Amino acid sequence: MVRETELSPSDFIYPIFVVEGRSVRHPIPSMPGIFNLSVDQAVEEARLVKNAGIPAIILFGIPGAKDARGSGAYDNAGVVPRAIRAIKELFPDLQIVADVCLCEYTDHGHCGVIQAQEVQNDATLPILAQAAVAYARAGADIIAPSDMMDGRIGAIRKALDEARFESLPIMSYAAKYASGFYGPFREAAQSTPQFGDRRGYQMDPANVREALKEVAQDLEEGADIVMVKPAMAYLDVIRRVKTQVNVPVAAYNVSGEYSMVKAAAQNGWIDYDRVMMEILTGIKRAGADLILTYHALDAVKLL
Ligand code: PBG
Question: 9 C-alpha vs ligand 1 centroid, how far in Å?
Fold first, then answer.
């Protein structure tokens, strides 16, 4: 009766990794319980999510072939557009968030195109915009750019509007830190940078004013939902963003955060259910309206 923070299945967005092939259900070693799924299997996973009362999934694509430009990202016949169409046909009410980034699609693993070993911010924008439009055409409900190039929200908004998707919302990865917690994701998406790192475009973990600036800039350019990522080491950032904006705030409880809890639980060092719920409650208490989490299916069983 006096509890201040209540978790609900409707808080969650569940990530799904889509790969080429049929009947593929390939376990990701560093993320127990999470798989690389071919489109037909992603549909089955979407069914579980829907039946659990979780309103949304976010899709990441791992293409059959990667190239320097990440052209697979805007292929209308790529794994993500195909997965969107297949899932939408069966579960029209399930909200599909399409992650927009090049790192899963480039052979060098960076989130933008490269020249002289440097990510080219402005040359990357039209490619991201083209990818967003491809996912919109396939039927995505929310576009979520995770690349952290400057100006990409404005570029994507403009391209969506020109393609007659004026009312399609953008969830911006607004405050995305250069974090060691993405390690397992990069194994899942085979997107570890082949040289250098992402510190040129992702944020310094020591900064919070900069996060507020990035958020304000994305809102100015047309973001409808803003995200803080990762979540657990950034609860103060979630709180600060929450008090500053009047749009929904999302927090991404990322792969490394999930893997640590799974690994400790498998060793019998912590109680998985209890620690998971404590973490998710903490993220919500900090101010997150939406939580992207690999725990979603486990968590709803306890609600
Ligand atoms: C980039 C992207 C990443 C994640 C989501 N989108 C990885 C990165 O920036 O290297 C990480 C999510 C996670 O760790 O769970 N497209």
Answer: 23
Task: Indicate the Cα dihedral angle 210, 251, 230, 114, nearest 10°.
Answer: -70
Strand partners, 106: 67
Task: Select from 251, 245, 301 the least CA-distant residue to 280.
Answer: 251
pLDDT tens for 21-35 read: 999 999 999 999 999
Average model confidence (pLDDT) across the chain: 96
* Nearest to 111, CA basis, from 95, 123, 93, 94: 123
Q: How far apart, in whole angstroms, are the C-alpha atoms of residue 253 and residue 229?
A: 7
- The top-level CATH class assigned to 9-300 is alpha beta
Nearest atom in ligand 1 to the alpha carbon of residue 294 is: 15
Mean pLDDT along residues 262-287? 98
Distance between CA 162 and CA 259 in Å, rounded?
A: 41
Pairing outcome for strands 25-27 and 95-100: unpaired
Q: Could you tell me the CA-to-CA distances from 142 to 48, 67, 246, 273, 279 in Å, in that order? A: 20, 26, 18, 30, 26
**Ligand 1 centroid distance, CA of 230 (Å):** 9
pTM (2 decimals)? 0.97
Confidence of residue 263 (pLDDT cuts 50, 70, 90): very high
